[in-house]
């Protein structure tokens, strides 16, 4: 199985988690192209483009101007999965990973990224902020990041998949859109997490994000290889609900 997750908006480069190895992102050339353009934007332009505060815009202006290709482990270049923060990564809880967990994750977990395209967990990254859905015209003919990445992420994922291998989509719709999944020939399962509230089951995004990370954690810790085994997921009180599920959208409720 290949597992897809989204990145986080926030990155904490003060985190130091030991890992068994580091790897290099596949699309550094493309990341460099994007950053060359992004680094020319002022704090005011970033503030409007990314809908962030002036402090966050200024932080990222500084990051962008000092951006370098992340090819060696350093204080400013660390494994992606160890420095992303937020609900998904709280659920993923990589601080609990041992060597076998990190190696399994690097083989099977993929992080979609506006800047880097697609990352293995142990790929090095230099801190950045660039959401996939940002309404940024990179060139007159490239109206957004979906145009920029085109079918590259789809092909990168397809090239890694063995015959019959299944994709578990734990990414947000913003990032999942970037892989152009309708072009994929492999089966794709999307887990959905719902809470019982006011007499009905609803997706509450904060909880759903954490649950996506928890499910990725569950897959990695148990070294799962068969999708059906996901139905036993019961972290944080969730249970598979066959009545609400379809063949490729598996609903977990609590």
UniProtKB/TrEMBL annotation:
Single Gene Ontology BP annotation: response to hydroperoxide
Family stated for the protein in its record: Belongs to the UPF0246 family.
GO cellular component, one term: cytosol
Xref: NCBIfam families: PRK02101.1-3
Organism: Taishania pollutisoli
InterPro entries: YaaA
UniProt name for this protein: UPF0246 protein H9Y05_15075
One matching Pfam family: H2O2_YaaD
């Amino acid at each position: 199985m290949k597992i897809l997750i989204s990145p986080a908006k926030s990155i904490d480069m003060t985190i130091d988690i030991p890992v068994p190895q580091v790897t290099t992102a596949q699309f550094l050339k493309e990341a460099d192209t994007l950053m060359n353009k992004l680094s020319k934007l002022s704090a005011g332009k970033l503030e409007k483009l990314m809908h962030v505060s002036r402090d966050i815009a200024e932080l990222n202006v500084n990051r962008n101007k000092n951006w370098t290709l992340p090819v060696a482990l350093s204080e400013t270049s660390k494994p992606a999965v160890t420095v992303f923060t937020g609900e998904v990564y709280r659920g993923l809880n990589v601080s609990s990973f041992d060597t076998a967990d990190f190696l399994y994750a690097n083989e099977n977990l993929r992080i979609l990224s506006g800047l880097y395209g697609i990352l293995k967990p142990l790929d090095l990254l230099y801190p950045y902020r660039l959401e996939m859905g940002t309404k940024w015209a990179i060139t007159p003919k490239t109206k957004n990041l979906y145009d920029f990445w085109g079918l590259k992420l789809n092909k990168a994922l397809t090239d890694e998949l063995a015959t019959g291998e299944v994709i578990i989509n734990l990414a947000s719709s913003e990032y999942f859109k970037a892989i152009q999944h309708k072009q994929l020939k492999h089966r794709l399962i999307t887990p959905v997490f719902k809470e019982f509230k006011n007499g009905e089951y609803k997706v509450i995004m904060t909880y759903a994000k954490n649950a996506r990370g928890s499910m990725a954690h569950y897959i990695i810790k148990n070294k799962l290889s068969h999708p059906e085994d996901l139905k036993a997921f019961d972290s944080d009180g969730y249970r598979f609900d066959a009545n609400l599920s379809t063949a490729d959208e598996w609903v977990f409720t609590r």
